[in-house]
């Protein structure tokens, strides 16, 4: 049985005190309950994993096991509407999800954090940086890992093919709405396109069940907001160690993902090859390689600046 969450005063009116391993709930400023999980030693370097659109915290299980056993303090959480978190009818926009992330960081009093975002989770991290990273000296975040997300998903109809390819924009505007208007019919095919053909049926079925924990209506609203965000002006203002990860077999062509690293001062990038099962979900399909790449980055970062607990 996991440790209990003990009540105590908190600036936002909510608190959650976790021991070495356990599950708890934070309350967002607009009253939504988000479930989080923590594991690993209390004094370990903080890693916060942010899942993607329609995904859940449970899908980070292969990273949670690895990094918590490697003496990191690992936090995962389900965004509003996703997984085991509360499912309101409002707030399905990236800016609100960034505010939710900020609530989580503050209420859990996390410091020296590396955020690891996958897919839309990268957009949430970019929005957080844009809105809340006001002063690097007092920010709880001092490292970033971005996993397979282009700078924008929707292609401006006036762009040339080369301009769209440079940032790996995936959809024309009408395609975003076509997908949002037929969530039930297109979910399975879209999700399949994010994996290699070698994923076992049982694993895919479980991941599909996780995707279905958010309603199609809420997922559609979030997809529309997410797709039309353009984060290119944020990248040059990121001033902490950053790793950008892409995949040769990803639904997002690696060129545009790698381009992000060229826009962030001193960012590193790595692209998983086809032999490394470099799909949109390389962290699931090849966790050993994924975890090793991220761990190496964290080690290099720790050698450059002293990070408590590493």
UniProtKB/TrEMBL annotation:
It holds the Pfam family Abhydrolase_1. It comes from the Eukaryota. Residues 47-287 form the AB hydrolase-1 domain. Keywords: Hydrolase. One of its GO terms (cellular component) is membrane. This is AB hydrolase superfamily protein YdjP. It comes from Dichotomopilus funicola. One of its GO terms (molecular function) is hydrolase activity. PANTHER family: AB HYDROLASE SUPERFAMILY PROTEIN YCLE, MONOACYLGLYCEROL LIPASE. InterPro entries: AB_hydrolase_1, AB_hydrolase_fold, AB_hydrolase_sf, Epox_hydrolase-like.
């Amino acid at each position: 049985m996991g440790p209990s969450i003990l009540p105590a005063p908190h600036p936002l009116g909510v608190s959650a005190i976790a021991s070495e391993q356990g599950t708890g709930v934070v309350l967002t400023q607009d009253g939504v309950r988000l479930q989080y999980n923590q594991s690993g030693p209390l004094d370990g370097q903080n890693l916060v994993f942010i899942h993607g659109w329609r995904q859940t915290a449970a899908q980070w299980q292969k990273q949670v096991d690895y990094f918590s056993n490697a003496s990191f303090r690992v936090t995962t959480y389900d965004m509003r509407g996703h997984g085991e978190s509360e499912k309101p009818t409002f707030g399905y926009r990236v800016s609100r999800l960034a505010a939710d992330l900020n609530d989580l960081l503050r209420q859990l009093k996390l410091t020296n954090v590396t955020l690891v975002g996958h897919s839309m989770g990268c957009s949430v991290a970019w929005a957080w940086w844009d809105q809340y990273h006001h002063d690097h000296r007092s920010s709880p975040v001092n490292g970033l890992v971005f996993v397979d997300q282009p700078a924008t998903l929707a292609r401006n109809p006036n762009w040339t093919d080369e301009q769209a390819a440079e940032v790996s924009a995936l959809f024309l505007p009408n395609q975003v709405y076509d997908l949002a208007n037929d969530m039930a019919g297109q979910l399975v095919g879209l999700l399949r396109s994010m994996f290699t053909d070698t994923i076992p049926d049982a694993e895919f079925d479980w991941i599909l069940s996780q995707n279905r924990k958010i309603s199609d209506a809420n997922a559609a609203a979030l997809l529309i907001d997410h797709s039309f965000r353009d984060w290119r002006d944020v990248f040059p203002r990121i001033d902490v160690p950053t790793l950008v990860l892409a995949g040769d077999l990803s639904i997002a062509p690696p060129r545009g993902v790698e381009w992000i690293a060229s826009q962030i001062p001193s960012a590193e990038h790595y692209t998983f090859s086809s032999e490394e099962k470099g799909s949109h979900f390389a962290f699931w399909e090849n966790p050993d390689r994924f975890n090793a790449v991220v761990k190496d980055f964290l080690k290099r970062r720790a050698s450059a600046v002293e990070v408590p607990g590493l």
